[in-house]
Write a structure and sequence with these properties.
448 residues; 19-stranded parallel beta sheet; elongated; alpha/beta; 8 helices
């Protein structure tokens, strides 16, 4: 049966104290709502509708980039009302439907899948959890058979109901058209005068449908409503990503110090030293080593390459096999071909470094003229001496040498040597005379 998902992302998020919509704050390099959409995609949910606030332009633009639709909840009238806002977008859909909050980045495809499977028993399924501190969560009361008998929001609960430890996680699955019928029948006779999604299982029960319960771990249902909760969710996500990497054969000396992005690809036998940060869009091939305090983003690292310590790979950096990028070397929008080396203190931007080339300390590609970026092409086996400046657009052909301290503005021919230093001059005895004069001046000042 076809599957669709509704993501509730119209909340104002005032506790975040931010001009950015709550669901657009990032965890592991991806906006929170993106994690929910990705989990739904992994659960084979083809159609996804995100419910947004009127001023949620950035949310709508982002979810569109992920292939999801969006609708607007004009007034904040509760979760049931928000879900009902997706009815028109799904008017032609008659398969299975699941509803989730857009600020729960840790939900997994496995939980969504379990909800769909549990729904087959009685018609609906609800995801619930048992927190260490039930606090202000809505409570779920089950009958003798384990189906939902009643649900109550914290503010509407009686002292007896608050003794229940099973809490609502906000995910519910059902057939689409009956679900929207029940949403339309919701009442707002509660403390908040809102239309709660929690009323749907009760309306379904009145028609003879039963709502099964799927229990999830507390860490998975963590919502994000404040900066502190955002940091907590980040920690949980990082722990999950590190665990997956270690289980896949990645070596980490101190995994708790390594930060990964949602899409980081680390192949088997990659070794990662402490305090490495992987931004979005990084792939590291088998056998490569990323040394301490390096930062990588939008980069590809080839098999057997060495990066760092203290290296930075920016978007567009592509290192082929056995490349060495050492301490305080920055690579941006550049391909460094097999076996080439830049071991320290260099900048390679908008460039190609040929196979086996050597880049000396202090070398920079001068790629920007204040208006446009220009390309530097360094041939295979070329040797660039220390403290050289290659002023793009420029080419150093295969096997050519560039003398230390040179500023190169023209093509250097294959196997040629290019040197642009001023002539060295020497004044005999100058240093001794200089020291004598300065010592005399210092002594004179002390006598005064």
């Amino acid at each position: 049966m076809a599957r669709a998902g509704i993501v509730l992302a119209a909340g104002m998020g005032t506790r975040m104290k931010s001009a950015r919509p709550k669901v657009m704050h990032t965890i592991a390099g991806l906006p929170i709502v993106g994690h929910v959409i990705n989990a739904m995609r992994a659960a084979k949910i083809d159609r996804i509708v995100v419910v947004t606030s009127p001023d949620g332009d950035s949310v709508r633009e982002f979810v569109k980039s992920l292939g999801a639709e969006s609708v607007i909840q004009e007034k904040q009238l509760g979760t049931g009302h928000a879900a009902a806002c997706a009815r028109e977008a799904l008017r032609d859909f008659s398969g299975q439907l699941i509803v989730s909050y857009g600020d729960h980045p840790l939900f997994t495809a496995e939980t969504f899948e379990a909800s769909f499977k549990a729904r087959e028993k009685g018609g609906l399924a609800l995801v619930a959890f048992r927190p260490r501190d039930p606090g202000s969560y809505g409570r779920v009361i089950t009958d003798a058979d384990g189906y939902v008998a009643s649900m109550v929001e914290f503010k509407d609960a009686t002292p007896k109901e608050l003794q229940e430890t099973l809490c609502n996680a906000g995910v519910i699955s059902a057939e689409a058209q009956p679900f929207f019928k029940w949403c339309a029948a919701l009442k707002n006779d509660n403390a908040q005068k809102e239309y709660y999604l929690t009323g749907v299982p009760m309306l379904a029960r009145a028609e003879g449908r039963l709502c099964a319960v799927v229990e999830a771990d507390e860490s998975e249902v963590m919502g994000v409503n404040s900066r502190a909760e955002l940091a907590g969710a980040e920690a949980q996500m990082q722990a999950r990503l590190r665990k997956h990497a270690l289980e896949a054969g990645v070596g980490m000396v101190a995994p708790e110090t390594v930060f990964l992005s949602h899409d980081t690809i680390l192949e088997r036998d990659v070794q990662v030293a402490p305090y490495v940060v992987f931004g979005p869009g990084v792939t590291v091939r088998s056998g490569a080593e990323i040394r301490a305090f390096s930062h990588l983003e939008g980069a590809e690292v080839g098999r057997g390459a060495l990066v760092g310590p203290f290296a930075r790979l920016r978007p567009g950096a592509k290192l082929e096999g056995d490349v060495h990028i050492g301490n305080f070397v920055e690579v941006k929008n550049a391909t460094v071909e097999k076996g080439a080396k830049a071991n320290h203190l260099a900048y390679l931007g908008d460039a190609r470094v040929g196979a086996g080339a050597n880049i000396g300390a202090g070398t920079i590609t001068c790629n920007y003229d204040g208006f446009d970026k220009h390309f530097t092409d360094i041939g295979a086996g070329a040797f660039i001496g220390s403290n050289a400046a290659l002023v793009a657009p420029v080419r150093v052909e295969d096997g050519a040498y560039v003398g230390a301290g040179s500023v190169i503005t023209k093509t250097v021919a294959k196997d040629a040597l290019a040197v642009t230093r001023a002539e060295q001059k020497e004044v005999p005895g100058w240093a001794a005379k200089f020291r004598k004069r300065k010592l005399a001046e210092k002594a004179a000042r002390k006598e005064k």
